[in-house]
Amino acid sequence: MIERFDLVPDKQTPYLTFEGFFEPSLFSLIQVIPGDKKTETSVIIPKTFINNIFFAETEITSFAEEGILEKLSLEEKIKRTNNGEIDPSLILNISTMVNYKIEFNEEKSDSRRITFSMQKLKKMLISTIEKEDIVEKEETVSQDEADVIFWSVFTPRMVNKREKILLHPVTALMSYRQFDQLNVAILNASQKQNGAHRMAEMLTKRHKLSIEKKIGAKFNIVNISSVREQEILPKTKIYFHANLMKQAIKLAQVLPGEQLLEPFPASRLSKLATDVEIFVGKNFE
Amino acid sequence: MWKFLWGKILNKITFILLFSVSLLLKNYSTAYCAFPEYTSRQKALKLAIVLENGYFKSIKILSVFVKNIGQDDYYLQALLSDGSSRKWLLNRIREWTQTDEMILNNNRALVFPSASTTDFGVLEKNDFYRTALNATAYVKTFGKHDVLEGKSLILGILRFRILQENDSNYLKTNKHGDRYRYLLELENGTHEYLTYTDAFLLMQRSALLEEVPETVNVLRKSYKVEEIKKLPLQLEDELRDIWRFGIEVVFDKPVMTDADKFPYRLVELKKKDLSTGRLKSNFFLQIVFPNAEKRKLVKGFINHEYLHQVKLETDKEHQKRVILKAMVDPDLMDLPPYVEVTDRNSVIVNYYSSQNRSLIQPPDLPVTQSPTEVPRSVFTPEKLETEFEKIYMQALILIRNAQKQQNMNLRINAYFKALEELKKASLSAENDIQITQALNQRDILLITLPKLIIRNVQMTILAKKLDQQEAKVDPELSSELLAQLAQAERYAFNDDQQQKISSLKNILR
Q1: Domain identity same for A273 and A182
Q2: Taking Cα atoms as reference points, which of A132, A109, A108 lies closest to residue A122?
Q3: What is the ipTM of this complex?
Q4: Are A208 and A271 in a shared domain?
């Protein structure tokens, strides 16, 4: 039952929180589907109703925090299953002002609230939307400053102390805590529909216990979605944080077919709570 | 005869069924990757202005209007010079631009950089030619899902060309259906084929450089591999019993590329186990060297510690890339490899192993039900250094430097300093993970220190005996060793150590 929502502002990663009563065991079935436009995302929450007393309006266009959301609409879908049971689900259609990658954040969700993190995506320079042009202008830096930033990427670097410690496997070992849960996102990069869902279902129904035993941690699927662009991969790919290589290998051993494992590229390392990302490739049967 | 007729009918039915299924699948797969037919109002208005006065199948476009079928679904309606009026959906416009059936005026090209959104751009071809002809270097940024994703190399440009009939990629398209138009020949011998979209994005990224500052290294030649060498196993961390061995890849010239441009990945290959008939996973660890090539035979190794079938191969999918490949036993590889660039024309890949199972020992599930939001590292994700971070970092540096110290006495003293820093760090900790890590490091040091001190005192006494034929140690050193033994006594964790300490104390006194 969904009762109210809250938008927690942040310059980089705002959070969208819905309060009410939820069933945490169904969190892995929450679907985040990118829309046709980069500013649109749909979210399907299974077995959920709207509490009409608190949520009188199902289409919201004005928000306390400006500049993040453009529109939020809630749609209740109630179906009757073959055995006569009622199967309600809630569809959230989220329109944002600029491009955000919306992900379900299981760490910040429990039986009384569900949270979605909204990670700001780098804007395409060729944007044709006037509103975005305005934002782009605001973010412009001076030419000299831009030159310094541009060339700094290519100048041979004196790796600083901090980087050296975080990058070296032995010192990294002294800096990371032993983890007790592995947060996994599964993304469909195969041409087949529902690839990510099928893999999530297979992992949770058939292999959850054996994975947890192998990696010695709770196995949480925190996000299931499809890749936005044409990123069809021939082989399933597992991205992992460098300190979780061993766990990623153990996961690969469980998955059917052959996988490719790579540490997260530095350019994509996000502050989100995902430890491992699985891009389901064409070879997943 | 009936049987024969039935057989024929059934054959036809099967054929029809198969045909419809394949048709369905085809439609489904195209629908999945389909480019949108409609766009937003703003984009449609801008596109209409761009298309005016252009040419559609050699007919001049007189004017273009914006129309809609729903609240947010806009398309274009065009009036052509032959008097016809055409309805243009976005996906069709994209197809026509790809096949040159739709051309913009003033030597411009319309591009749709994303295959799933209707964002578009206009390539000013004349500007691009001028930039490309004046450019001396090209910033190659590796795309998504490349092992080098997001990283860039600056490569010297040899020549810019427009593709012509005799070029192998002339009229060929990339996976998005965009035709290759230009060729950038680079000094390292690689070729970059560019579509209009690529050219547009290069202009957007300022990837073609006319002048390069002196501090920036432009890669003009590829690195040629001379040989690969084994680096023997040696102790890396005595506190955690971590050992290091390596492979040095020697090139023909100094390596001017940062170590982070030599990434690693693991490739799983499944093979049928002949004895069980089941599929068995084999993991291959690969280190990728961009802008490198293997021109001569480089001898590999059958084994080197937990690496098997170590060899250097040319990457068949990418130009000027070599891969250092080795089969690994994933159970023995606890830590990821670490790459270092040396000043002797080489790159060292360090591999780590440990007998200490607690390194990767998974936490005991029932007792580790921690609250959900616990930071993963003692270091904050932002680059702001907290007081704890500064002190903890200092302690880590002291420990790492101590491990490189050959003189045991100095090493023990450095460990004592690290202990003091760890205490300060614990006192400045701001959350549980910080204090836990600081105390863990302290405990690891305290387990190892008594052993080290006992060994140090034993070796010192033995050395004195050998040198001077008498057991007397000079009083200053003696008191220092006694102080160390006093510390060791406090943390000795078994009787054997306690006995050794008291006997050594007696000798020193």
Answers
A1: yes
A2: A132
A3: 0.82
A4: yes
The string of DSSP codes covering A12-80 is S--EEEEEE---GGGGGG-EEEE-SSTTEEEEEEET--B-TTT---SEE---SSTTTEEEEEEEEEEEE
Q: Which residues of A touch B260 (CB under 8 A)?
A: 167, 266
Q: Is residue A26 domain-shared with residue A114, that is, in the same domain? A: yes
What angle is formed at CA B244 by the lines to CA B238 and CA B249, rounded to 5 degrees?
Answer: 155
CATH number of residue A233's parent domain = 3.30.70
Look at residues A172, A267, A276, A274 and name the one whose alpha carbon lies nearest to residue B377.
A172
Question: How does DSSP classify residue B104?
Answer: -
Which residues on chain A are in Cβ contact (under 8 Å) with B108?
Answer: none
b/e code B115-137 from CB counts within 10 Å (16+ = b)? bbbbbbbbbbbeebeebbeebeb
- Bridge partners (DSSP) listed for residue B180: B195
| Predicted confidence (pLDDT) per residue in B428-439, tens digit | 988 887 888 889
Q: State the DSSP code for B259.
A: G
**Whether residue A189 is found in the same domain as residue A96:** no
CA–CA separation, A274 vs A119, rounded Å?
13
A263 contacts in chain B (CB < 8 Å): 263-265, 336
* Dihedral (CA of B413, B415, B416, B418) sign: positive
Q: Is residue A155 part of a domain?
A: no
Residue A100: CATH number of its domain:
2.60.40
Q: Nearest residue of A to residue B114 by CA position? A: A229
Q: Are A267 and B149 in contact (CB under 8 A)?
A: yes
> Is there a domain that residue A138 lies in?
no
Say whether pTM exceeds 0.90: no
Last residue of a domain, one of A120, A137, A152: A120
Contact A31, A224 (CB under 8 A): yes
Instruction: Please identify, among A104, A120, A136, the residue that sits at the C-terminal boundary of a domain.
Output: A120
Counting the structural domains of chain A, the total is 2
Whether residues A183 and A114 share a domain: the answer is no
B355-365 pLDDT tens trace: 776 665 544 43
Please indicate, yes or no, whether residues A112 and A179 belong to a single structural domain of this protein: no
Say if residue B402's pLDDT is above 60.
Answer: yes
Cβ <8 Å between B433 and A177:
yes
Which residues of chain B neighbour A169 with C-beta distances below 8 Å?
335-338, 352
B159 to chain A, closest Cα gap in Å: 22
Structural domain span for residue A243: 175-280
Q: Are B71 and B41 in contact (CB under 8 A)?
A: no
Domain match, A69 and A179 both: no
In a domain, residue A136? The reply is: no
The answer to whether position A170 is within a domain reads no
Contact A213, A260 (CB under 8 A): no
How close does chain A come to B101, measured CA to CA in Å? 23
* Best A175, A226, A254, A285 residue to mutate vs chain B (most B CBs within 10 Å): A175
Going by C-alpha positions, the residue among B506, B420, B416 that lies closest to residue B453 is B416
Task: For chain A, give the percent of residues with pLDDT over 90.
Answer: 11
Burial of A87 (0-12, 13-18, 19+ CB in 10 A): exposed
Q: What is the bridge-based pairing of β-strands A181-188 and A276-280?
A: parallel
A205 touches chain B (CB under 8 A): no
- A150 touching B (Cβ < 8 Å): yes
